Amino acid sequence: MSLNKEVKMKTVTLGKGLLIAAVILLVGIFIIPNVNASTIKPTKAGLLEKDTLGDWHYPNIPKDGQPVYTTPNSNIFFVSSTLWGNCRDVKVQGNYAFCAFWNGIVILDISDKSNPIRTAELYLPVGSMQPMGDYAGKLAISGNYLYLANFDQGVYVIDISDKSNPIVVSNYNTPGSAFDISISGNFAYVTDFDSGLVILDISNPQNPTLAGKCGVVEPGWDMFQKIFLSGNYAYITDYGEGLVIINISDPHTPHLASVLTIPEGVSGLWVEGNYAYVNGCWMPRFFVIDVSDPEDPSIVAQTPYTYGWGNDIVVRDGIIYYAYGSYGFIILNATDPDSIYLMGQIDTPVDARNLTVVDNYAYIADMWGGLQIIDISNSTTPQITGSYGNRASVWHCSVEGNYAFVANYQSGMPVINISDPYYPEVVSETPLPGAAVEIVTQDSFAYIANSYSGLQIVDISNPQSPALIGQYDTPDKSFGVFVVGNYAYVADRFTGLMIFDISNPYNPQLTDTMDTPGYAWRVYVQGDYAYIADKYQLIIADVSDPYNPFEVSRYSTSSCFDIFVSGNYAYALDVGVIILDVSDPQNPTFVSEILGYAKDVYVNGNYLYILGSAIRVYDISDPYNPILVVLSDSTPGSSQNMFVKGNYIYVADYSSFCIYKSSLFDCTSGDANCNGLVDLADVIFLLNYLYKNGSAPDPLEAGDANCDGIVDIADVVYLINYLYKNGSAPNCS
To answer: Which long-range contacts (C-beta less than 8 Å, at least 24 apart) are formed by 708-711?
Structure first.
């Protein structure tokens, strides 16, 4: 969160020199008193404030954008996303692999197994994470259609006849939570979790209809998960029972054939010939089940407690290919069910969740490890030949000019070119030791709170080739960083607040440490004071002398883990958001509280933005009586923070980096940064755009303060006249 605030302070610092130079050189008659970072409130430093995401019932987003939530005050559009993580399933058809990622579908050309090439992405709403949504997202292919069981979003039907342009043609909302799907003829068989088996007539894929349904065995306990079709029977793993077999000879009247209780529960499932193969869910072993009579299945073999606790299996001629979770991928020989033994094994990057086997290749959905392609031509020595995807754990982001800099918890610092926000491009990725959790940028440097590895400083003067140049290994875990001028303020958990002189970014020097009573999670600096989110309290410290910080007050909370300060008010993330009057930092007083889950908070003018499982925007013109004005639907992944610039909202969504476009404020002439205010920040924004390759006003007309149809230095002069010389207000209407 503080990265937004820090970059704003940085932008002010950059703008000061340009502003003075431009005024002296081109005008010479204007005197601007005391323009510096400390005289400008953070909420007026050139960033549109937070407002994002919305109703996820618009799966096809045109380039122009399509509103995902609309109120009288807000239109929010999904623009694009990248750094997709969490590959949940994969299916293969010909030379194409279809991958279900957390944020949607990716189609890959796999004609070269060593170099999968993306042909298309289709953004879709993610299914709920609870209780089993992380395991859902299963795919099935039939002809030119791809079917996605997307948990509480139901079943999506996608036309894939054009591999470069997949199109959602229908969405069937099942009564429960669609977990897995299998196709046979004109019917789709969906395990609908606690709702049982749902059978859809898909003879017209654009209008699937309910054909039949069979409920769970024991309501309130059972949960149907994996499904495998063989002959007239559907074989289903049941979280509560074991193996459930349903007679589907008439899809309109399915009925229970048998139940084989397996106390350990079952996870993976495959049927070949007269045998069903399942692996235990709670206990690590395999079961081989005789299903020659589906009405009376029986266990004929089981392994010792050696192999299990995995996820998905495929069986070919008695050879078991096994997605073995965090242990990778293994191959077992079960040609003799009484003597199952290990043939080969290979680790995958993260968590082998689901798999498909085609010819001599296994395609593994490896969750945060993306897609892994494994050559299984030699069963004793399987080899990874290709991969696609990122180990995305996007915790934080900062935007500077045409680039977004991302704190990726698992893989360091990706850099994304966002000059065309509809087509963001990852241009570099800098591996970093530790786990990046927060990032701020100033001048040509990125400052990263890197948990285990402390404070790290990266030279970003060339975004395509960043370089780690400075580091300070703090005593504990660095979770927060805030930069003002030549000092970096680090929240280092049990250590408390640490202050560093970064005038030489190659060699940061500790100036002092101030112990805090709890866990220092985040820090925000305004003026002479640092505000520290310290788990059970907000600590306010005097940092006017960076070599001698000291506590001046504290305010007790139940769980303070982040903080934003704007003017005379502090916004502490607790169970919800607590608003405090800090006009006297030595005596913070309660103003009001907004309940509800919150991960990030931001203030712009009279609006407070709260990011949690959804986005809430409050009018806080009266902080004692916040009024909800915008409420979005749930966010697509697990949102961590937002960075807002102009009309664009950049969301660190854990499973991806998302870009949205908003028009909460009308961007009138003169309001170059489109934050609803015409002030010095707009002057700085224009100077950054004209002389520092900063972002353009969006729309461009917002920068045309003098209404002459051109955005140039004359508009800067016009704004200065208006703000400081009683000139006419911008008005191009």
So the answer is: 711/686
> How many CB atoms are closer than 10 A to CB 647?
24
137 pairs with which residues across the strands?
Answer: none
Residue 283's pLDDT is what? 65
Cα separation, 341 vs 331, in Å, equals 9
pLDDT at 126: 59
Domains and CATH numbers, the chain: 2-46+667-724 (no CATH), 67-78+394-662 (2.130.10.10), 127-309 (2.130.10.10)
Mean pLDDT of the chain: 84
Question: Rounded distance, CA 211 to CA 254, Å?
Answer: 10
551-558 contact pairs (CB < 8 A, 24+): 551/514, 551/516, 552/585, 552/586, 553/585, 553/586, 553/587, 553/588, 554/517, 555/580, 555/588, 555/590
- Residues 471-483: b if buried by 16+ CB within 10 A, e if exposed: bbebebbbbbbbb
Other CB atoms within a 10 A radius of the CB of residue 34 amount to: 6
Cα–Cα distance, 247 to 55 (Å, whole number): 38
Give 690's DSSP letter: H
For the record, the structure tokens of 173 come out as 């909302």
Angle between helices 713-724 and 2-22 (to 10 degrees): 100
Whether the Cβ atoms of residue 600 and residue 639 lie closer than 8 Å to each other: yes
**Per-residue pLDDT tens over the stretch 366-407:** 988 889 999 999 999 999 999 998 666 899 999 988 899 999
Cβ contact 115:97 at 8 Å: no
* Under 8 Å between Cβ of 651 and 399: no
Distance CA 246, CA 706 (A): 74
**What are the pLDDT digits (tens) for 548-603?**
999 999 999 999 999 999 999 999 999 899 999 999 999 999 999 999 989 998 88
Q: Rounded to an integer, what distance in angstroms lies between the CA atom of residue 653 and that of residue 249?
A: 44
Q: Which residues pair with 498 in a beta bridge?
A: 490, 513
Query: What is the three-class DSSP state of 647?
Result: coil
CA–CA separation, 555 vs 558, rounded Å?
A: 10
| 437 burial via Cβ count (<10 Å: 0-12, 13-18, 19+) | buried
Calpha distance 414→400 (Å, rounded): 13
- The rounded Cα 617 to chain-centroid distance in angstroms is 20
User: What number of CA atoms fall less than 13 Å from residue 236's CA on the CB side?
Assistant: 37
Amino acid at 552: V
Among 119-128, 547-556, 592-601, 709-718, which stretch is predicted with the lowest mean pLDDT? 119-128
Assign residue 463 a region (left: φ > 0; alpha: ψ between -120 and 50; beta: otherwise): alpha
Q: Closest Cα to residue 438, out of 460, 423, 453, 420? A: 453
Helix, strand, coil % (nearest 5) of the chain?
Answer: 10, 45, 45
Can you give 463-499 as a three-state secondary structure string? CCCCEEEEEECCCCCECEEEEECCEEEEECECCCEEE
Specify the higher pLDDT residue, 133 or 500. 500
Spell out the alpha helix ranges (H) of 637-712.
680-691
How much is the pTM?
0.76
The pLDDT assigned to 411 comes to 82
